[in-house]
Specification:
This protein is of the alpha+beta class. It folds into two domains: 76 residues, Roll (Ubiquitin-like (UB roll)), CATH 3.10.20.30; 77 residues, DNA polymerase, domain 1. The chain has a five-stranded mixed sheet, sandwiched between helices.
Length: 170
């Protein structure tokens, strides 16, 4: 017996008939054909499937799609900068060589964006602790940390500029 789920994914409403046992990662990849959300371990250990559910980073392989009923979901395909180009985190990963094979990168970027939104100026130890649930077999994390630090500075500057533009205090 299938169920109907509806949610907003990357700003667009979606509705689908699915098996109630369908994992969110499976729904994203197979039903929506958004393959940037990777599945590496199926146990929530690697973080490759990280997406934003109602504004918070979650591992989509540990959540049933039915649990996202009515939710707002953001995948790596929906991440954009204010100008419509690369998000500052994506640009920083590219500029600071925070990726090699790229398998972990979408989940790492999604988790890092959430981390910086919660800690606007994170220290290195906060970044390392915050990314602890995302595994990278290639980089050794040094350049990933540098990328998150650089993106955090840009995101803080963007937040300050937006506040000033709206007539608020920085």
């Amino acid at each position: 017996m299938n169920i109907t789920v509806s949610m907003t994914v990357n700003g667009k409403p979606v509705t689908a008939e699915i098996d109630p046992r369908t994992l969110l990662a499976q729904f994203i990849r197979e039903n929506l054909r958004l393959t940037g959300t990777h599945v590496g371990c199926d146990t929530g250990q690697c973080g490759a499937c990280t997406v934003h559910l109602n504004g918070h980073a979650v591992k989509a392989c540990n959540i049933l799609a039915a649990q996202a009923q009515g939710a707002t979901l953001l995948t790596i395909e929906g991440v954009r900068g204010v100008d419509g180009g690369l998000h500052p985190m994506q640009a920083a990963f590219r500029e600071h060589h925070g990726l090699q094979c790229g398998f972990c990168t979408p989940g790492m970027v999604m988790n890092a964006i959430d981390l910086v939104q919660r800690h606007l100026h994170p220290a290195e130890e906060v970044i390392r602790a915050g990314l602890d649930g995302n595994l990278c077999r290639c980089t050794g994390y040094h350049n990933i940390v540098k990328a998150v630090q650089a993106a955090a500075a840009r995101m803080a500057a963007d937040t300050t500029a937006a506040t000033l533009k709206q007539g608020g205090q920085a």
